[in-house]
Design a protein that fits this description.
The protein is mostly helical. The chain is built from 10 helices and 4 strands, in the order E-E-E-E-H-H-H-H-H-H-H-H-H-H.
Length: 299
């Protein structure tokens, strides 16, 4: 007897639920017409459907997407909250393990000089490539992390909803990486007698979110005056205030503008493939620049 046929007993005049053969029923699924008992009935727009047909309908239905190709979310900013949580965790660990003099910061902050082994440190030039990413989650001062997390929450929640989660996560990580690579590329060698320089913070990623949000808002024909004012003020502070890495800010901003433009203006017919290629291309570019810079420093 086929599993898709009603199961009958005795004279075969009373149908039985196809999932529970011991239960008599006179209700059939509206899609496949198989008999279903009350426990198997799923309310449909007309009548009832069986669980198998409901699952098949879900798998066949197209996932609603945003105008930029991302899957629609329920409005929650899960990725943004996780990123804020990671930044907060790094902040707590760093300050509980000795701050700038602790081993945790020595491993996770971004050190770019070739002469670090002389003072007992290792950086990217010595093979600690993970510092290009870990440094973007590391903060030591409460004001520093507070300002960055405010920017992450405001622009991150917006972009996560507009771009979808994987595009947004790729944007955050790659713009942070691009900022770190810019630091590595444009930071000069260590000068004896001067304090050793290091870089940390999510500013590269936050500036990347600024840039992407600007492009997305322009694509949506929305007013960007306030965002431009905020961006100009932050850039002015970048070049005026001391001890701020302009390389990270500019690198994050430029990569954010590029990724945002790709996400916003890619042709709909090839959007998915172009977005993947664009993300992969920027990652490969960052790797290539890092390798080339290391070769120059170690030559």
């Amino acid at each position: 007897m086929s599993g898709s046929e009603p199961v009958a007993r005795g004279a075969g005049t009373i149908p039985h639920c196809y999932r529970h053969p011991d239960r008599e029923t006179y209700i059939s699924c509206q899609r496949c017409s198989r008999p279903i008992c009350p426990d198997c009935m799923v309310q449909a727009s007309v009548g009832f459907q069986c669980p198998d047909c409901v699952r098949q309908g879900y798998s066949e239905s197209r996932q609603a997407r945003t105008s930029f190709g991302g899957r629609m979310t329920n409005g929650s900013s899960v990725v943004t909250m996780v990123l804020i949580g990671i930044n907060a965790l790094f902040f707590i660990i760093a300050n509980l393990t000795g701050g700038i003099r602790g081993d945790f910061v020595a491993k996770t902050a971004l050190f770019t000089d070739i002469n670090l082994p002389r003072i007992g440190l290792e950086g990217v030039a010595q093979g600690s490539y993970w510092q290009l990413i870990t440094s973007t989650f590391l903060h030591l001062q409460i004001l520093h992390i507070a300002m960055n997390m405010i920017g992450l929450w405001i622009f991150g929640a917006f972009l996560e909803n507009q771009l979808g989660r994987w595009r947004y996560l790729a944007l955050y990580l790659l713009t942070g990486l691009a900022g770190s690579v810019a630091i590595y590329l444009f930071t000069g060698p260590f000068t004896p007698g001067q304090p050793i320089s290091y870089s940390l913070g999510a500013s590269g990623s936050v500036f990347g979110l600024f840039g992407a949000a600007l492009v997305v808002l322009l694509k949506q024909h929305r007013d960007v005056t306030q965002l431009l004012v905020l961006l100009v003020l932050n850039l002015a502070i970048t070049f005026v205030a001391p001890n701020i890495s302009w390389q990270a800010h500019v690198g994050g901003l430029v990569s954010g503008l590029l990724l945002g433009a790709g996400f916003a203006y890619a042709p709909r017919q090839r959007r998915q493939s172009l977005h993947v290629a664009m993300v992969a291309g920027l990652a490969v570019f960052c790797v290539a620049v890092t390798v080339a810079r290391t070769a120059v420093l170690t030559a």
